[in-house]
Amino acid sequence: MNATQAIDLRSDTVTKPDAEMRAAMASAEVGDDVLDGDPTMRELEERAAQLLGTEAALWVPTGCMGNTIALMLHLQRGDRFLVPRAAHVLDNELGTAAWLAGGMPEPLAWDAGPGRPSPEAVTAAAGSQGPYYRLRTPLLCLENTHNAAGGAVTAPAEHARLVEAADAAGLKVHLDGARIWNAAAALGVKPAELTAGVDSVQACLSKGLGAPVGSVVAGPQGFVDEARRVRKMLGGGVRQGGVLAAAGLVALNRLDRLHEDHEAARELAGGLAELGLRVRGPQTNIVLAEVDDLQTWLTRLRAAGVLASSMDGCVRFVTHRDVSRADIGEALRRTAEVAQG
Ligand SMILES: *Cc1c(COP(=O)(O)O)cnc(C)c1O
């Protein structure tokens, strides 16, 4: 890292495919995945399903498409769905939950902790099934880790209580697990423990693991069969996708390195706190710093060679595979200059 090169902490999506991943992509065995299947796609989907503890999985180009497909399958036009406030499906997916899936969101407060509604709040918001002229609420959409809450995790016991509350009210559960791998790493559990009881889950391969593209949407075989049809409708059916799935397979072999990003995030948060910033304690790889003038901070950080983004009114720093611990130290030195004005 030379002195003038910017340290990119905007997102873990900036991680780039390295030589190992590019080699795997170059030598991937492929077929026509729309016509009759691609062997590397199949391998990735089986591996993802195994890790997520679901019957089947489907590769999709993006996490947004994975969430959209799930919402389209779980909702009919005009249905209401419950979702924690500031969820990605609400704030960062251009309204597709309404535009494409026809859903009306009911945002839930984080009354159980950062990013987490309580099971009681789910029960209360779900209400009871009424007569035919009442609004229907068939879905609870959860997010683990919760991005806007600073990568906050929901532990297996709390997840189980939320699923139980949804079940009791007759709601299906979709889990936006874009960073479920980070949640599992932080909690020291298997990813499958965080999907218990859900009807579908979306997980990203392109965050912190180096894959250039790809997510999976997973669930029972019948759900995945339907998801494959909707993916084609949305223009997401790809031909020799094995070239992309090969990158995903390499990514899934790297899950045990995510704790390094979490350690880097703690170091960064500690350093920012020493500079006098109010930091929301990182649980995974996302650090939120509360500042008085967000835009000024972002502009001055950029000028000092630290790229960050904004989230929930805070400066958001995300640690990832392509920033070293030395980079974190340098980012803190540069941020100190900004803090001193
Ligand atoms: C990144 C992300 C997604 C999907 O993002 P894509 O850019 O479409 O891959 C979905 N949910 C959450 C919580 C995310 O952080």
TrEMBL record:
Gene3D superfamilies registered for this protein in UniProt: Aspartate Aminotransferase, domain 1, Type I PLP-dependent aspartate aminotransferase-like (Major domain)
InterPro entries per the UniProt record, alphabetical: ArAA_b-elim_lyase/Thr_aldolase, Low_specificity_L-TA-like, PyrdxlP-dep_Trfase, PyrdxlP-dep_Trfase_major, PyrdxlP-dep_Trfase_small
Keywords of the record: Lyase, Pyridoxal phosphate
Domain (Aromatic amino acid beta-eliminating lyase/threonine aldolase): residue spans on this chain: 8-292
Requisite cofactors: pyridoxal 5'-phosphate
Biological process annotations from GO: glycine biosynthetic process; L-threonine catabolic process
Entry's Gene Ontology molecular function annotations: L-allo-threonine aldolase activity
Taxonomic superkingdom: Bacteria
Keyword Magnesium set for record: no
Coiled coil feature spans: none
N6-(pyridoxal phosphate)lysine found at: 207
Entry's Gene Ontology cellular component terms: cytosol
Family: Belongs to the threonine aldolase family.
UniProt-recorded name of the protein: Threonine aldolase
